[in-house]
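Weekly structure sync, notes
Attendees: PL (lead), two postdocs, one rotation student
Agenda item 3: pending single-chain targets
PL asked that the sequence for the first pending target be pasted directly into the notes so everyone works from the same version. It is reproduced below exactly as submitted, 301 residues in total.
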Amino acid sequence: MARLEVNRSGEMEVFVRVVELGGFTAAARASHMTPSAVSKLIARLEARLGARLVNRSTRKLQLTPEGCVFYERSTRVLADLNEAERSASTSECPTGRIRLNTSASFGTHILARLLPEFLALYPDVTLDIVQTDAVIDLLEDRTDVAIRAGPMKSSSLVARKLGETPMMIVAAPSYLKTAGTPKTIADLEDHNRIGFNYARAVEGWPFKIEGETIIVPMAGSVQTSDGEALRRLALSGVGIARLAAFTVREDIEAGRLISLLEPFGTSEKEAFHAVYVGQGGPLPSRVRALLDFLAENAKVQ
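Predicted structure, written out during the meeting:
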């Protein structure tokens, strides 16, 4: 014979009402039940527990010692359940920890300036930020939101677009003073082309020559997995780098980096997305708050 499911929290709620309202009739009204149904529920509860919880009389109910213990613990359990539901509710004020994975470039040039405003809006939220350019498994890494650059591949991830940025070829004045300034694509063969050591959507640097796209392979003395580290290597005069425009605009304006080969640039732009695992249910309010905030304020150009 199949075993019937027992709604233990429902039983606790009815029992607590019986105790606090002083009888089966009042508890029945509060629970939208009949007095006989409440009486049977309490009897089933006592039979399952193997203990009498209340002594019944025509005038009032009196808790047994076992009933007192069960009442105290039931009220604590129900309070914990209510608190758990409030914490998980999307209508509640966002609270709790968010694990955010982002590239160092996005974290340094966009996220850092926005964090004070976000944390002021949601003081009960804490952020656990991991900076890496590597593509991680959100579920395995227990990540709530990740910032990813480049085209989105079909997957179980849901994406909110944060914008897109041109890619620029840059070098420091100190490097160009020593190695010379490339004027044509062919000149790059004689230069130290530093770049990333992980697979990208386009391997190499694309340029336009008479309407045709030419891919120049990256070949230099240094490779790195971190876009911000690549920017700092370029600033130090190590070589020529291809970087997102939003990360080097201030350096170019200040003269710390020089933009190169602009007539040969392509219209290619790198898109940025905030991604999360789409599991079909409502998002925790803290995650929804961060996604909405990033979509509104973290524009990549």
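Discussion points:
- Residues 96-161+270-297 form a domain with the D-Maltodextrin-Binding Protein; domain 2 fold (CATH 3.40.190.10).
- The chain is about 40% helix and 25% strand.
Action: rotation student to compare against the earlier draft before next sync.
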